[in-house]
Amino acid sequence: MRAIWKGAVSFGLVSIAVRLYSATEEKDIRFHQVHRTDGGRIRYKRVCSVDGEEVSYDDIAKGYDIGGGEMVVLGDDDFADLPLTTSHAIEVLEFVPAEQVDPILYAKAYYLEPESTAAKPYVLLRDALTGVDRVAIVKVALRQREQLATLRVRDGVLVLNTMLWPDEVRSAAFDFLDEDFSARPQELAMAESLIDSMAADFEPDAYTDNYREALQEVIDAKIEGREVVAPAEEEGVPAPAVDLMAALRASVDRARAARGEHAGPPAEPTPITSAKSARTAAAKTPPAKKAAKAAPAKKAAGGKATESAGEDKQAAKKAAAKAGTPAKKTTAKKAAGKTRRSA
User: Fold this and answer.
1) What's the pLDDT at 103?
2) H-state helical runs in 237-270
């Protein structure tokens, strides 16, 4: 890493020489604007809107628009005379509990490394901050701008977090805040149950930038000349819940199932789910009753038909038997008569 600033931490009468390093870096994939047909880079010229001539960096100043087409021009000398008393120092103003600093105020983080001659007082401040569980509120001038910041300890190193000024934070003035919305106790309990079922320890390494990874694969495919395969589509955003309790209950069950846990006992039905159940039961009852009544009737009809068929068969057999007996006797008599005549 390359130091972007050198100065000293002013801690009472103690001065700690330090070097400042950016603690974070963005991993966005950056592109250049190019000509689609030949890939040539697109260049932008700094052209004056008055005379149309290209302007070099040395001739560029800063202008403040005061309206009405008028501009106040400020040069390097104007900025040099500004009272930046903390231009080469990180001035500790006070020490406050860490939980009192709203995270919305944090802007960018920097590591502080001590110079070789300032290692001992650096470690002293680091250990003292760790022991009292507080952060130092400081002022520092970076890139010609005075900024509010905090000093805290991370992994044995002092970290400077620049902060926004209070008037740089917008107020959350939304219409729904003026309306009377309140959650029912059952809904609140189910929401808390959902939070509990999804509770875990935060592990940043468990999360990845899926979009950046997919974009990098597309770029690699272009480089290698292979076919580009579109990544699998993720699940769409679920539709707004009509029954809040039902949605919460389903969310809790899904979260528990994802963890291999058994779903809990069914919760008390809500007015919406009760009404839906009643309408469903009313709609399904008549056909069910008809089917239930029709089933015994069919069974009875089937049984009678079987019995009558059996009786018909028995009657037919008896009739055939009666009809066959005389025929047999007549045939026997005729055969006996022929025998006597021949004798």
Assistant:
1) 93
2) 244-258
